[in-house]
């Protein structure tokens, strides 16, 4: 699971087109958008020429300064002569670095496909034509890249199943030059694989010869993730531990044997966080800014303000927080049963997130039943999330599986101690706390297994530390210092080495 450091001479900076359904500053639902935003900028700062292509959704936050290309780009999505979409291109102002690197972003403008009040769905549910929408996104991104760089990019970097079409189209249907262009597929979450009916092969410009068990065919369906992992030159996941986990049945979601066959080209590169944007010394979203020296007093100010904001009783007892998509993956079913007992032991709890209706209903019921002790906000609220990181003592992230996870890193950056399961990126980022008469180490609490009882035990351990304010404050400072290891430069450097290892020498 590694790549060599092969430096390839070339006459221009390494040219990478990144294709993603989400970009944090434009439109996002989770960590995918955060990663694409930060990684693209970090690579450009290292001197790469990076082009990010993503749709222009109805919910996209379009910057004030943009330009529209005078001519549209044609994106083929099917085999028929009329199966072509004409895409308007809206380009953001480029970001240039002293290294000579540049990050460009192009938005694909096609209102019928993308101009809706959601990325993947709306209040009525998931969009039924998402396969078509992301096929157009992927093909459109390649066509845009060829306009930007005559001769095309040096590397195609596709993110998650939505961009798997880019790997498949380039390798299978767009001609010899594209077929020889190296591609890297980053798996942010293997649970989502792009599973289609067989009839979609003909409809979405996929060749019939690829419908075989070692490529697209999987358990009676077309599996885009399987096909793209077969054809990509390199596969990455967003943490080293998750790269190992997906080779087994528990985290492989049915593709473990297929991925094991391609394990030689798989590498785990830990996600980073933007240490400038996520900085308690400068964050305007929190009530009281702080650094390591002032954290002990200013975090108490944030704690009191957070309790007031979410309607909790005043007090100095332990405050737990959770910011997550409310889903089975995030272990919400492990959290709900323990909340009444935590409250009975003197804790208060704040939750912000949205997701499965069942978990939303359960959490709102607990908030009504324990008014003043449990505060719940069913919303996607990034600013409130920052105030939770800055104000809670302990941050819950008990995922059943976690490719990387960013919230536990954000929490440590703001001095909250994470309580996590020992999986994926949680394992790679949180150091288990140990304390005794002669030593204090660690940055969070790691459960012994993924279960309700183990999570409750970890919370009790956290409360024992929290009972000693001085010990809690020292652990909080350790977490803040530990979080500075997670900046993007190191991760971006690993991606650069990966890209260079697959790019042939070019003039």
Structure description:
By secondary structure, this protein is of the alpha/beta class. The protein has two domains: 15-272 and 488-502, Glycogen Phosphorylase B (Rossmann fold, 3-Layer(aba) Sandwich), CATH 3.40.50.2000; 295-485, Glycogen Phosphorylase B (Rossmann fold, 3-Layer(aba) Sandwich), CATH 3.40.50.2000. The protein has 20 helices and 24 strands. Strands 1, 2, 3, 4, 5, 6, 7, 10, 11, 15 and 16 form an eleven-stranded mixed β-sheet that branches. Helix 1 (31-45) packs across helix 20 (488-502) and helix 11 packs across helix 15 (382-391). The chain is globular.
Task: Give short descriptive properties of this protein.
507 residues; alpha/beta; Rossmann fold; 2 domains; 6-stranded parallel beta sheet; 24 strands; 36% helix; globular; disordered N terminus
| Chain oligomer state | single chain
Q: For the report, how would you describe the main beta sheet?
A: 11 strands, mixed
How many domains would you count in the coordinates? 2
Query: Which spans of ≥5 residues are poorly predicted at pLDDT below 50?
Result: 1-8
Helix content: 25-40%
How many beta-strand segments?
24
Gyration radius, in Å: 23 Å
Shape summary: globular
With helices defined by DSSP (H or I, 4 residues minimum), what is the helix count?
A: 20
Average pLDDT number: 95
Condensed summary:
This protein is α/β, with parallel strands linked by helices and about 500 residues long. Helix content is about 35%, strand content about 20%. The protein contains 20 helices and 24 strands.
